Structure to design on (226 residues):
């Protein structure tokens, strides 16, 4: 069975600095998708970034980028120039290649950006 | 206007009551999902639907039922609510096996 592990329950970073959130996953599949979602205090689940497993190039979205290491089954999120609005819980998620479309979520990492 | 809406946003009910949570989307997506979020856990899949005539159980479907009334509407029912169903419930949609987009969530408290 696929699993997603986020080993950092809480992290903090100073405004304008860079922070990296870790995620590892376990699967025997070769073709899958990985996501980072952000959940601010408003509780809305917001897509941050997406990575297709068949792509070697790491995805980037403005200040957000990933380090995707397929062999190591690692998918970390780097936030550059952290802003107060980045304060949220961040979830790593794995989308299986089976036709269920089932997203498997990690436990989440609470990130606090300090002024 | 939001692409994925959920009603109600908050609900308090009593043990044994039947309640329905509703989800509507204007994204034109074919697939819809219901997830549950408990503190300290990520989201877990309750039910999913690929089209109006297709309903599938997720990993935690016991005690829940769903109805896909139209492509744009997917409702979740708790036939007889119990306290351990207190949670945050999310609806999500996707086009095929693509990115899932979430509604704002419904916070449910069962007393």
């Amino acid at each position: 069975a696929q699993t997603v592990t986020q080993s950092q329950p809480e992290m903090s970073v100073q405004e304008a600095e860079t922070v990296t959130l870790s995620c590892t996953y376990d699967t025997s599949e070769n073709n899958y998708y990985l996501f980072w979602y952000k959940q601010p205090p408003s509780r809305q689940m917001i897509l941050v970034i997406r990575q297709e497993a068949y792509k070697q190039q790491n995805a980037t979205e403005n200040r957000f980028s990933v380090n995707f290491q397929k062999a190591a089954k690692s998918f970390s999120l780097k936030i550059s120039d952290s802003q107060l609005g980045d304060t949220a819980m961040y979830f790593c998620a794995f989308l299986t290649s089976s036709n269920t479309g089932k997203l498997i979520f990690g436990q989440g990492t609470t990130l606090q950006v300090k002024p | 206007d939001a692409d994925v809406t959920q009603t109600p946003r908050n609900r308090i009910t009593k043990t044994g009551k039947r309640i329905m949570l509703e989800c509507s989307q204007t994204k034109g997506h074919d697939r819809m999902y219901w997830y549950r979020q408990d503190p300290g856990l990520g989201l877990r899949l309750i039910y999913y639907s690929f089209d109006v005539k297709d309903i599938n159980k997720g990993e935690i479907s016991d005690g829940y039922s769903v109805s896909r009334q139209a492509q744009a509407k997917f409702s979740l029912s708790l036939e007889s609510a119990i306290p351990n169903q207190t949670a945050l419930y999310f609806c999500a949609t996707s086009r095929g096996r693509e990115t899932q987009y979430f509604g704002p969530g419904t916070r449910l408290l069962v007393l």
About this structure: Chain B touches chain A through 27 residues (CB under 8 Å). The two ends of chain B are 33 Å apart (CA to CA).
